Fold this sequence. Notes:
This protein is α/β, with parallel strands linked by helices. The chain has helices at residues 6-11, 39-50, 62-81, 96-111, 130-139, 156-162, 185-194, 206-209, 214-217, 242-247, 282-286, 288-297, 301-324, 336-356, 384-393, 406-411, 428-445; strands at residues 20-21, 24-25, 27-28, 90-93, 117-121, 142-146, 167-173, 199-202, 221-225, 236-240, 258-261, 266-268, 328-331, 374-379, 396-397, 399-401, 417-421. A hairpin with a 2-residue loop joins strand 1 (20-21) and strand 2 (24-25).
Amino acid sequence: MYSMNPIEEIRGQFPALGQSVWGKPLVYLDNGATSQKPQCVIDLVNRMHCGANANVHRAMHKLSDDATALYEGAREKVREFINAPARENIIFTSGTTASVNLVASSFCRKFLGEGDEIIISGDSHHSNIVPWQMACQAAGASIKVIPVLENGMWDMEAFRGLLGSRVKIIAVEHISNVLGIVNPIKEVIDLAHAQGIPVLVDGAQGIVHCKVDVQELDCDFYAFSGHKIYAATGSGVLYGKQQLLEQMPPYMGGGDMVDTVTFEKTTYAPLPLKFEAGTPNFIAQASLAPALEFAQGLREGEIARVIEEQECAIVEYLRSALQEIEGCTIYGLPPEDGYAAGLDAGLARTAELGASGELGEPARFGEPGSKIPLFSFNIQGCFPSDLAQLLDKMGVAVRTGLMCCEPLMTRFGVTSMVRVSFLPYNTLDEAKYFIASLKRAVRMLR
Ligand code: PMP
């Protein structure tokens, strides 16, 4: 199926990757913020704008039927991708932020009271902090935080100490967008459930780099954005356990989420529409189908092995190359043994599967403690924004700033970091070009 250079074939499906910036070939390393789009997603969006463009669920005409079929087809694709039991579990939102806000507002209105507590992880994105603060303010509840250790891992001992009868929900990052370490969410979920506490997982980064099976994880909610996993911007998902979603009041009121309406009283539509008021971004949501199909294709068979090897090589290369730069601090490096064990287990499993001829899901996808190809760092004597501007002129797109994680920045005593984040379409050569460009930029600034 794939010829000599499968990564080049993958790259060929992304028109945006072929462009030049400032006269240099683009090296796009800001994938943690958003992914580029494959041709199959672009085609679907164009096809819908040119043809199946009509509001979903509303009209008795062909175009609306077509749009609805694509929209509901994408819901089925999402269900399958995360192994949810039914379509009722899959709520379409505009992204992770909207998904977390939905739960923080609706769940907390029903279940959070005065004196109650919510636990969040210390590596949380603002979208997994602020909505809970708003809910706590409304209810007179408070937030407790799982501390982040110096190496970027969670202090699980401290987490155990936070558990108690006043905790009504736990909301944690699957993978922090700053630290790039797969967090032990299964352990958190099991410990929480032993005390009857539901868990929401912010999967904005997790869905991209891990195989997610919501039934195996047994999480109560899983939130993610479509745009980070190849789909069009404006698409997003909230997975929720049905029995919880049934008990939660609607988040927004309006069209499509109702059963009957009188001026006195409204009854609501069954799941999932109860949480989908108004005209959804149906074209973006429909694009989740080709996007997840594409992502799935990268996780199966021979190509999965090639990608895994490349990701491991990029992680190893960046870890040592960055550490060799004088004055460089990397944020989020799991301990050597844990980290190596995570990688080794993944590689050994791949080799085992390869040898038996049964190539399947590489074990590295999702192993707690493993590092994804995402590195945040600072270099003494260089402002991150200066580095980013110089890198941009060399064609390298990186991220800088607070990265929507101000409390985590404060934890590490900084106000900004530089971040590079890779997807399977990025190559080891790009990583090498980035390091060479970074060294050049550092020389210019020192
Ligand atoms: N959580 C994490 C870990 C993220 O990386 C992001 C996006 N940077 C978000 C939440 C928010 O996602 P969105 O802006 O797509 O809602």
